[in-house]
Design brief:
alpha+beta; Jelly Rolls; Arc Repressor Mutant, subunit A; 5-stranded antiparallel β-sheet; 3-stranded antiparallel β-sheet; 11 helices; 10 strands; globular
Length: 290
Amino acid sequence: MKELPIYQINKFELVTNEGDFYANYLNQHVKNHHFTNSPHKHDFYLVILFTQGTGKHEVDFETFTIERGSLFVLKPGQMHYWELSEDVDGFVFFHSREFFDQGFYSLSIKDFHFYNALQGPPYFKLDEKLLNCIQFYMNEIHTEYIKHDFLKWQKIHSMIVLVYIEISRVKTPSGNINNQTYLRKLRQFEDLIEENFRSEKFVKVYASQLNITEKHLNRVTKSCIGKTSTQLISERIVLEAKRMLFYSDLNVTQIGETLGYYDNSYFVRFFKKNVGMTPLVFLAKYKLLS
């Protein structure tokens, strides 16, 4: 089976031997790592800010136009690649979950909604004021990264949080975001889906693992992100099916079996219900567009 490469931070040219954080100017990053032009995944959290240049950036089968003020936040496991103009520039940094969480006792990476939702928005368009603000923070992060000043990592951690806070204010999630109990349950549910979507499809099983009822789990997901529990499970399965259709050598039957569907006709119906076309039609259409 042909699979997308999953890059770790040590795949990139690091200034230090820490191995769980990287920062660079975007033009240097692109120049030194040509493999980012081909579809791939990461096992870390990634932030990219474009301050000049144009192009397109594809993230999990959604294509975004790149221009000044384009900002992307990607979670581990998301498929992406780009096509960029020669004059592209900006900033990029990425880190492991452990790197972020170890810096704060009261704050976790999952406290930021864009890293929490299974299909959270990877793209933000910044106005000039916010662009200048985040550009300043990311420049400071890069400057600290290449130096060895006192409390270097503490400052980098703090600047990352400032970047994330500003991004969070661009577009907040819909629903009752003030209900911290609901948000915690949603995070736990999403983590369970990520671990088990290939083998487990029923809401009642996830609800049981969360020690709540199916009805309450649906209330949580509807209140926080406006989707049912079943929708979240289905969206994660469909996303993986799309990835496998386009980037593996498996046929539709084999993909269905890999995702826990041993009745091929049922899998095709499930895919068509959620995507609006059969797997083969999707594959043919997407190849024409790519």
